[in-house]
User: Which sequence fits this backbone?
C-alpha cells in the first residue's frame, strides 16, 4: 500500500463527488471529509493512519495506550497536554473512552464494553484448536508474555476453559481474555503440555 497515493486518490474522489453534489449540506460533509485527510497529512499522522488501515477484521479494536491500574491511567490523563478525546485506552485490559471538554478542561475515563462485543464476535466465529493448555491463569499469562512473536487470536485452555491470546499490535500489548462461549470441545491432547503447536 502506498499511503501517499491512496490519500491522493481518496481526495480526488471526494473532490469529484463534491462537484457532482447538489445539496449544500452534503457539500459541507464532503469538505469535512477532505479536511480530515488534510489534517492527517499536515499533522504528521500519515504512518499512524496507515497502521490503522492495516488492522484486520480479527484484530482487536484500536487503543492508544494501556495501563495496569486506574490510578496509572488517571495520572496519565491528568498530565496529558492534550487528551485524545474519543480515543480508547486499556485499563487492566478493559476498554475505556477518553473524554475531554476543552472549555472547562474536564477530563474523564469512561469504561465501555468494547472488548465484550469483540470477544462475542470471536466466539461466534468459532474457536480454533488450542495451541496449549494451562492449569492456572498465571501460567498462561507467563506463556503469553514470553512468546517471541505474539500469537494472533490464539486459543488456549486455562483450567479447561477457552481463552484467547490477543496482541494489541499498535501499542505492543499482550492480553488474555476468557471467551464468553465455547463452540468446540477441548481436544484430547490439549492438556498434555505439548508446545509443538505454539507459535
Assistant:
Amino acid at each position: 500500500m502506498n499511503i501517499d497515493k491512496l490519500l491522493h486518490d481518496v481526495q480526488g474522489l471526494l473532490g469529484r463527488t463534491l462537484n457532482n453534489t447538489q445539496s449544500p449540506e452534503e457539500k459541507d460533509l464532503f469538505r469535512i471529509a477532505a479536511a480530515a485527510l488534510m489534517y492527517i497529512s499536515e499533522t504528521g499522522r500519515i504512518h499512524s493512519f496507515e497502521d490503522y488501515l492495516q488492522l484486520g477484521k480479527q484484530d482487536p479494536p484500536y487503543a492508544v495506550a494501556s495501563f495496569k491500574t486506574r490510578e496509572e491511567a488517571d495520572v496519565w490523563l491528568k498530565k496529558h497536554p492534550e487528551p485524545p478525546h474519543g480515543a480508547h485506552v486499556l485499563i487492566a485490559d478493559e476498554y475505556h473512552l477518553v473524554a475531554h471538554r476543552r472549555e472547562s478542561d474536564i477530563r474523564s475515563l469512561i469504561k465501555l464494553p468494547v472488548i465484550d462485543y469483540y470477544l462475542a464476535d470471536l466466539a461466534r466465529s468459532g474457536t480454533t484448536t488450542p495451541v496449549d493448555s494451562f492449569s492456572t491463569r498465571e501460567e498462561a499469562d507467563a506463556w503469553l508474555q514470553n512468546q517471541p512473536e505474539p500469537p494472533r487470536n490464539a486459543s488456549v485452555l486455562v483450567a479447561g476453559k477457552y481463552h484467547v491470546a490477543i496482541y494489541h499490535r499498535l501499542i505492543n500489548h499482550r492480553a488474555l481474555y476468557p471467551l464468553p462461549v465455547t463452540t468446540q470441545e477441548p481436544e484430547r491432547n490439549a492438556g498434555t503440555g505439548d508446545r509443538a503447536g505454539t507459535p
About this structure: The chain has a mean pLDDT of 86. The chain has six helices and eight strands. The chain has three domains: 3-53, 65-112, 115-192.
